[in-house]
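Hi everyone,

Forwarding the result from last night's run.
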Amino acid sequence: MLILDGKIASAAVKADLLLQTQALKAAGKRTPHLAAILVGSNGASETYVASKVKNCEETGFESSLYRFDVNVDESILLQQIEALNKDPKVDGILVQLPLPKHISESKVIEAIHPAKDVDGFHPVNVGRLVQGLNTFIPATPYGIILMLEYFNIETKGKNAVVIGRSNIVGRPMSILLSSNIPQGNCTVTICHSHTKNLKEICAGADIIVAALGVPNFLTGDMIKPGAVIIDVGITRVEDATAKKGFRIKGDVNYEEAILKASAVTPVPGGVGLMTIAGLLKNTMKAYIGL
């Protein structure tokens, strides 16, 4: 059974990006610059943004972090995005989600110039993805594709099930797996809260991407022997025995999955790390130009 270790795969991506940035510096050029916007002080968002900044440093990228109070007016946030859109030294812009309820996420996403939308959420980039055109792929699905590539996971002709239909993971993941790309060409089924016979559908899948945010949802009896399991879930579960008072759990019952699957991503240490790798790859792409 193969552990799809995000530490190993993401390290390879970052090593390649570091070589590129070192070459840029040697040529007297500036390096890619990622600007992140964080609203409020959500613990998970704080951790994730801090990790992005750290990874930028490790790959030689510049990074800027713009913090706003949770009660910030939407217009102020949009003004900051417009300023970053106009800044020629900023290549990529990301706004950490979720946002407070008084701010329209769709309006904020659409305010980011498509050429700087390294999260791949802008409708223009989503449309290009659907049409199979060169674009920014949402970071988590992109990271999963990079992981499948690194570990040489065969996908052609396989039956893939994606559990979850979010615009951030589920929908773009289904598009990528069904696309005519090296890590695609699957027959894809998207499952969600209204799917009937979910257990039977999953049990017939060669590849399962679990992205619904419910800890331990995918159990061993839902897994076909030899299947590849990609766990996107990252949920904090209270645990008084843990040092931090909680543990990070995925959507997959890992202990049961490793008894039946041929390959499984761990949580933590799997897809989360590859999400950042995908974001960094997108930032370099924004620097070079689509």
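The domain at 27-114 is CATH 3.40.50.10860 (Rossmann fold).

Cheers,
N.
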